[in-house]
Amino acid sequence: MSWRAQELFGTTIPVHWPGPERPRVHVILDTEESFDWRGPFRREGFDLAALRALPGFVRRLERFGIVPTCVVTYPVVDSAEGSAILRELAADGRIEVGAHLHPWVNPPHLEPLGPRTSFAGNLAPELEAAKLAALSARIGETLGVCAEVYKAGRYGLGPATAATLVRLGYRVDTSGYPHRDFSSEGGPDFRAMPERPFRFGPGARLLELPMSCGLLGPLARSSALAASLESARGRRPGLAGAFARMRLLRRVTLTPEGFELPDLLRLARALVARGHRVLCLSLHSPSLAPGNTPYAPDARACAALLAKVEAILEGLLGELAGTPSTARGLLRELEAAEGAGS
Predict the structure, then answer these.
(1) Tens of pLDDT along 177-222?
(2) Residue 39: helix, strand or coil by DSSP?
(3) Which parts of 116-213 fold into alpha helices (H)?
(4) What per-residue confidence (pLDDT) applies to 246?
């Protein structure tokens, strides 16, 4: 069974930021262990060496005024080296910290390992809650931080996630991936979710900051065709690939991983032209060092990826006159506006 957007988010309430119409730009870094993305899910066998590249990456962002939100997995904060790196960066205000639940390496280990249980939203609600509570507690113990921002590993939201997040004190979710359908893998179907931020969950207390993603090409306005192609990716990937190669219709996500700079800038321009005022640049921490992901297989590719991050930010903050923010900063700005209007 795959959860659809309505089952994940329920009633959604669009939100709008006050003040200048400049887009807000924030960075979400999935700060996680390195593992074989093509292999089976394992409790062990991961590596944390790529975390040593995090301070250098943060320094690259500083010249843009960007403070990334590092959503962290359990192995990262459970390791002495990983927690020391994060603690120093967080203490100086150079990063903000959130939670990133990889259920296969996050206690309690009660579920069978497999593709379906790699999406935390597919677990029994009490097990999903126990895992997130364990992660939240470990973040607090090692970093002295009360995490308010969440991103589900593999974008694996479930119908019980929102209530669990509210109960544990989370305020912002960044798991939603518009135009994506993971149902062929047993994951959620986000095709019907809004592209722009909204409130949802019990009492509308959660702010959703979706991945920045959109459709490019002459056929991008055909929502029915786009939905059909996305649904076909798991069953007939050649069909979607053919449309992309002909540049008739392709889905682009605002990440340096797997997308070329011209398309990324084209996407950002299109989103801003459509009224988007929040742009999320996202990537995975293992890509910051060579040899950990398909996006940075060697030193040359890794250097190119990091240069692409800088070029994207130059476009977002320069050409598009964006202003740096963070997930928590966006929440605080929205709350201030809501309070002023009440």
Answers:
(1) 999 999 999 999 999 999 999 999 999 999 999 999 998 876 556 5
(2) coil
(3) 125-143, 161-167
(4) 46
CA distances 246 to 219, 232, 241, 271, Å, are 11, 17, 9, 22
pLDDT of residue 2: 80
- The beta-carbon contacts of 301-310 under 8 Å, at least 24 apart in sequence, are 305/256, 305/257, 306/57, 306/60, 308/256, 308/261, 308/264, 309/60, 309/256, 309/281, 309/283, 310/60, 310/64
Span 31-84, pLDDT tens digits: 999 999 999 999 999 999 999 999 999 999 999 999 999 999 999 999 999 999
Question: What is the domain class of 23-36+47-212+278-289 according to CATH?
Answer: alpha beta
Q: Which candidate, 95, 99, 125, places its Cα nearest to that of 110?
A: 125
Looking at the predicted structure, is the pLDDT value of residue 227 above 60? no
Q: Where are the domains of the chain?
A: 23-36+47-212+278-289
B/e letters for 231-267, b = 16+ CB within 10 Å, e = fewer, are bbbeeeeeebeebbeeebbbbbbbbbbebeeeebbeb
Residue 234 dihedral angles phi and psi, to the nearest 5° = -75, -30
Average pLDDT of every residue of the chain = 92
**In 3D, which of 97, 87, 174, 178 has the Cα closest to residue 135?**
97
Per the DSSP assignment, residues forming a β-bridge with 63 are none
Contacts 24+ apart (CB under 8 A), 6-11: 6/192, 7/159, 8/121, 8/157, 8/158, 8/159, 8/161, 8/162, 8/176, 8/188, 8/190, 8/193, 9/162, 9/176, 9/193, 9/198, 9/200, 9/201, 9/208, 10/162, 10/200, 10/201, 11/200, 11/204
Over residues 71-103, the pLDDT tens digits come to 999 999 999 999 999 999 999 999 999 999 999
